[in-house]
């Protein structure tokens, strides 16, 4: 018996098959081109495992339609990604494989993976928020195995934050809001602020303090609104060194108002290594879909 996982990102698709213990048996990466070509490649690849495949979990970039009773359930909707507006994603898989398919956002897939791993690591985690800070910013929220978001999935990347006094002349890069969280801390902001990529910016650069101030506000707001057991930060911009700065700012902002326990355990890097959270989450969601 095999479970399938598709992590659909704006630049690449990661397809994998794994067993019920969430161990990857095979994996492939396709660049994101047109919907027909990319989805077609995925279907062809999974076809090799047709006899053993029992369910598939798909975690996609968005926005996506998640309401089961909506005619566009399983679609990527009004995405800024060119060529992908109104793309039926789940439909072609349903048609080809006739298997249970779990469908959620990329960050929800990762959040679920971290939720499952926390349990496997014997952490007492009932609720968890997973942020990704990479090309874009987003977050998924799991409470007792269910996602928050009924009318649609959360869009935490676009929350408003208080500006850092040393950053007031930066307009932000979000095409919708300018200086929302994503507009201030997503990977491409390094290029916009400094003219170089984030990889070339040493942690001693003040920009990292400014970003930590914004990310700490996101952690604070998440804490005050949801009181989760844990907040996980993943994505290309995040490192343990950066999170040290975030924790320091977070403690200042929280000012001991509520107890979050040991902040080192509360604000953490992903348990899954090598950006593997979503694949594990997708396997687990596929298994859940199968059992339901
Ligand atoms: Zn925005």
From TrEMBL:
Source organism superkingdom: Bacteria
E.C. numbers: 2.7.1.4
InterPro entries with a match to the protein in the record: ATPase_NBD, Carb_Metab_Reg_Kinase/Isom, ROK, ScrK
Keyword field contains Amino-acid biosynthesis: no
GO function term, MF aspect, one: fructokinase activity
SUPFAM superfamilies (alphabetical): Actin-like ATPase domain (SSF53067)
Catalyzed chemical reaction(s): D-fructose + ATP = D-fructose 6-phosphate + ADP + H(+)
UniProt cofactor(s): Mg(2+)
Record key words, sorted: ATP-binding, Carbohydrate metabolism, Kinase, Magnesium, Metal-binding, Nucleotide-binding, Transferase, Zinc
NCBIfam families: FrctkaseScrK
Similarity-based family: Belongs to the ROK (NagC/XylR) family.
Name this protein carries in UniProt: Fructokinase
Organism: Candidatus Limosilactobacillus merdipullorum
